Each structure stands twice: as structure tokens, then as C-alpha cells.
């Protein structure tokens, strides 16, 4: 595949090196779940610059969708309306799939979240206060009741 066919859209934000490295790490860890990038008819990237750069570095094929007559206004609108997962989204997801540690944590948050901040509950459960919750996001939290 010719990765060079894709072009940067004037006015689009720069690609974050940290984001590209995170995407590469995720692909190496769990594989690539095909998520097409969105381009216009000039092959200017409207959505998916980070994925494109990661796939280019890994020499992997790029799946894409051509949406005619879109440009920077649509690019900005798409990014304004996207939201990343919150820590509670990760906790809820792992709890919903049956991870008992996350079910325990979620029950504590439901029971005491109105009187205690969630960060206090996380500290009590994990003993960590550094704010780096990657172990919670990726499913490594272990609670013993």
C-alpha cells in the first residue's frame, strides 16, 4: 500500500508523537482492530491522522473511507464532538464483563461516591495516589475483599 497517497489537511492539528506511540503499543499488544480513516476526494485526512502514522510506521495496510466535499470545518466538528473514555467508563466496562475486582470497586463508588470523592475511594482500594490509572484502564486492578 502506498501510504504516501494520503495528505495532511491544511489547518488540521499536528499529530502527537505520544499518541502515535500509544497507538503502536496498542496494536502490538492486542492487534489492530480495523478502524478506517476518513479522507476527502483529495485523500486529505479528515479523521485518523494518528492511526495512519502508526500504520505507516508498522508497514500495515490502511483502510479508509472517502467522503467527498469535506474539509477543515468538518474535521474540526468531528473532533469537537468526540470524547475519550473517562476512568469511570473503564471501571464500568471491566465490571460489566465480569471482572470481580472492578465490580467491587464500582459497588464502593456507588455506595460512597456521593459522600467521598472517587479519587479517595481509589486510594483506599489501591493505595496509590499518583494519578496514573493505566492499570485500571487496561484491566490489571486487583481487589481482595
Structural commentary:
With 145 residues, the chain is mainly α. It has 2 domains: 3-80, no CATH class; 87-137, no CATH class. Helix content is 47%, strand content 6%. The chain is built from 7 helices and 3 strands. A 3-stranded mixed β-sheet has the order 2-1-3. A hairpin with a 5-residue loop joins β1 and β2 (45-47). α4 crosses α5. The model has no long low-confidence stretch (mean pLDDT 88).
Main pleated sheet: 3 strands, mixed
Principal-axes shape call: elongated
Gyration radius, to the nearest Å? 19 Å
How many alpha or pi helices?
7
Average pLDDT reading: 88
Briefly, what is this?
With 145 residues, this protein is mainly alpha-helical. 47% of the residues lie in helices and 6% in strands. β1 (37-39) and β2 form a beta hairpin.
Topology (elements, then pairings):
Blueprint: H1 17-30, E1 37-39, E2 45-47, H2 49-57, E3 64-66, H3 72-80, H4 87-96, H5 100-112, H6 118-126, H7 134-137
Parallel strand pairs: 1-3
Antiparallel strand pairs: 1-2
